[in-house]
């Protein structure tokens, strides 16, 4: 499943390649994604230019020149592939082998000027494509309850303290996974952030000290920044439109490392795996404290 860094990398690739282009047509092969695509409504994008391409949480947003925006969510297996005017396949993300086109799962094809095509492919069809008025995005279902982005100034110690009072009895891991608290963190990065912050994932929010909160904010940013730089976490023969591979996985400290020695210098413990809220949780019992 793509997490924030993968989506950010996709966004960057798209912005580099298709920002400012115009939609000349759209072909819906299968309208049944997570939400059914309104075929008539989506035709409104024809003739419109892309003014900007942004990301909010795991959504990619194309702002069009008519005050509407296209929202893409990649769900579990969604991918966006660009075919340029010379029919060259351009990868936009890192978690699939996109050398071979998998036309069977192509659901929507956007035709653009300069002979460019943008293909939405999704094996499991948990992703979605929606058109929303740009001014209404923040109030829409998918956005209104999202917490601050990890890199936003509004994610700060005062905000954390306020939430701590309200959510005292849950585990810190569950809080970090909650998109209403921070938008965009997923299981991989939450495991890594807690390891770097030396906090046991089962620690109750009420027991967090100021230092813990400072560390969580700090390491959320550093870990995501590093992952974006390396092109995302979920490598599988993956390279971006810049040809860089997603090598971040090689830098994981705890995720998927159960049974291995703890990577912290001087620690002799073994990384453990437990389930918290049904998600695999990896941690070092010695380094990560309650
Ligand atoms: Zn350790």
The percentage helix is 10-25%
CATH superfamily of the largest domain: MutM-like, N-terminal
Q: Extract low-pLDDT stretches.
A: 234-246
Output mean pLDDT: 90
Written as H for each helix and E for each strand, in order along the chain, the element string is: HEHEEEEEEEEHHHHHEE
Which structural class fits the helix and strand makeup?
A: alpha+beta
How many E strands? 11
Here the CATH topology of the largest domain equals: N-terminal domain of MutM-like DNA repair proteins
Biggest sheet layout: 5 strands, antiparallel
User: If classified by CATH, what would the architecture of the largest domain be?
Assistant: Alpha-Beta Barrel
Overall, the morphology is elongated
Which labels suit this protein?
290 residues, N-terminal domain of MutM-like DNA repair proteins, Helicase, Ruva Protein, domain 3, 24% helix, binds zinc ion
Structure overview:
The protein is an alpha+beta fold and 290 residues long. The chain folds into two domains: 4-144, N-terminal domain of MutM-like DNA repair proteins; 157-284, Helicase, Ruva Protein, domain 3, CATH 1.10.8.50. The protein is built from seven helices and eleven strands. It has helices spanning 4-18, 39-42, 141-144, 157-166, 172-177, 187-196, 210-229; strands at 23-28, 50-56, 59-64, 68-73, 78-83, 89-90, 106-112, 117-122, 128-133, 271-276, 279-284. The chain has a five-stranded antiparallel sheet with strand order 1-7-8-5-6, with helices on one face. A four-stranded antiparallel sheet has the order 2-3-4-9, covered by helices on one side. β7 (106-112) and β8 (117-122) form a beta hairpin. α1 packs across α7 and α6 (187-196) packs across α7 (210-229). The two termini are 29 Å apart.
């Amino acid at each position: 499943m793509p997490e924030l860094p993968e989506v950010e990398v996709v966004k960057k690739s798209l912005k580099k390649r298709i920002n400012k282009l115009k939609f000349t047509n759209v072909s819906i092969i299968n309208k049944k994604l997570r939400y059914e695509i309104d075929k008539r409504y989506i035709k409104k994008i024809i003739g419109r230019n892309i003014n900007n391409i942004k990301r909010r949480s795991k959504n990619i947003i194309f702002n069009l020149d008519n005050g509407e925006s296209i929202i893409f969510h990649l769900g579990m297996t969604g991918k966006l592939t660009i075919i340029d005017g010379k029919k060259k396949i351009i990868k936009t993300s890192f978690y699939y082998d996109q050398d071979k086109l998998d036309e069977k799962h192509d659901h929507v094809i956007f035709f653009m000027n300069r002979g460019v095509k943008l293909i939405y492919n999704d094996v499991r069809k948990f992703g979605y494509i929606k058109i929303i008025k740009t001014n209404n995005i923040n109030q829409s279902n998918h956005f209104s309850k999202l917490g601050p982005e990890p890199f936003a100034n509004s994610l700060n110690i005062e905000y954390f303290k306020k939430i701590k009072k309200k959510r005292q009895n849950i585990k810190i891991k569950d809080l970090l996974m909650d998109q209403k608290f921070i938008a965009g963190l997923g299981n991989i990065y939450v495991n890594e952030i807690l390891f770097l912050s030396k906090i046991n994932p089962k620690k109750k929010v009420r027991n967090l000290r100021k230092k813990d909160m400072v560390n969580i904010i700090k390491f959320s940013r550093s870990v995501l920044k590093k992952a974006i730089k390396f092109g995302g976490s979920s490598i599988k023969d993956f390279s971006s439109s810049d040809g860089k591979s997603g090598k971040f996985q090689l830098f994981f400290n705890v995720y998927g490392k159960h049974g291995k020695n703890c990577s912290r210098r001087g620690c002799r413990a073994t990384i453990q795996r437990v389930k918290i809220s049904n998600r695999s949780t990896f941690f070092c019992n010695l380094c990560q404290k309650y």
